[in-house]
Amino acid sequence: MFDKMSRRKYYYRHLLSLLHKHQDCRRAIQQIHSHFLVLNIEDISILALWNSILKHYSLSPFPQEAIFLFKYLKNQSDLMNFDSFTYSYLIKSCANMKRSHVGTALHCLSTKVGFDYHVHVQTALVNMYIDCGCLFQAKNVFDEMPEKNLVTWNVLITGFIKWGKIEFARSIFDVMPEKNVISWTGLIDGYTRMNRFQEALELFRKMVVHEGIRPTEVTLLAIFPAIWNIGCLEFCQMLHAYGQKSGFNTSDIRVVNCLVDAYAKSGSIASAWRVFEDIDDVRRNLVSWTSVISGFALHGMATEASDCYRRMENEGVKPNWITFLSVLNACSHGGLVDEGLEFYRRMVDDYGIAPDIKHYGTLIDMLGRAGRLEEAEKMAIGIPSAIGNVVVWRTLLGACSFHGNVEMGERVTRKIMDMEKEYGGDYVLLSNIFSAAGRFVDSERVRSVMEERNASKLPGVTLV
């Protein structure tokens, strides 16, 4: 009898190790699940095995299977005592399914069997309600919890941030009894996503300087967008030094790529280039190349962007649509029209990348700047209707105004009016084209039509 029990325990341990070994393989888990179903009824009480399968299903693309398995187990044995892990995995499956009504049923069931005081189960419920968009219920569960840990607080904060409730998240953050780097990073990321960049930088400074909390690489990735949107070169240099000292610059290529982008957008393309050149050839990826090419484009350095692209190709890195958009932008601002058209041809013919509206807009802007208006108009006409956009025609109208092409300006305006008649800027541009050509009567006529249609004009803004 003892040998039989020992063999059974060994067998269960073996099955459990198989589950852990193949936890990311759906087919393997299903095979082990099928094997469990042929066990004797008393074997169902081996809860750790079933919990491992529930965990896999709850985190998989098919979380509903965790609910189906739970119902099966309950029907098979009313005596089975499910534990906190069971309910946590089931609640997680509801979060992944975005099924709050199923989650509410599990909430009631878990309370009925005594888990209303269990911090892990209650934290899972807070997370589930937030993922389902039920913020009021999430806050209620949180408020009624007799015990909360740091994870609970962070789940609530990041959840409110996820739904754009940054003020609520900040109020929760301010009363937290204890904060860790995850708490700070979550709120910094929230301010950045809400385009409140100055507040993000102030919070980051408070975290590092006043609280003495060391940022992680995730914190750096969260703060970089605030830095380059404000153009704060001092912050770039500080994070560059910190990344070097902490080892993030050598361990996480994402940090270095963001640093290249931040330097370029903060006005120091020389620093961006130095950081890029310091990246090992093995670690340098497509994002690295695209970031520095985009930086050159931003600074009007078309030749450098073009040369950098060719060097990238020579090193065997395959460009994507963003890379081509960056190099086309550089050619547009640098006046390299023929070179830009060649890049466009290679994008379509050699790499099979279908242009989107941004590529077309950049090409028309490039041709328009160079005065090649007929080519620009022909390209605009050839844009598939599925991706056609009035902005492209407005770009061409701006070029007509700059070069004083009255006839094309009239044609382009008619095309724009077929799409949208409410924007006053279109009328103003055509009126200016007529005025520049000495056709003042036509200019006044366009202004009158604009007034009749009550077309809106953007008010002027003075920046001090």
UniProtKB/TrEMBL annotation:
Protein's recorded name: Pentatricopeptide repeat-containing protein
UniProt KW keywords: Repeat
Pfam families registered for this protein in UniProt: E_motif (PF20431), PPR (PF01535), PPR_1 (PF12854), PPR_2 (PF13041)
PPR repeats: 149-179, 180-215, 285-319, 320-355
InterPro entries: E_motif, PPR_At4g14850-like_plant, PPR_rpt, TPR-like_helical_dom_sf
A molecular function GO annotation: RNA binding
Biological process per Gene Ontology, one example term: RNA modification
NCBIfam families: PPR (TIGR00756)
Coiled coil: none
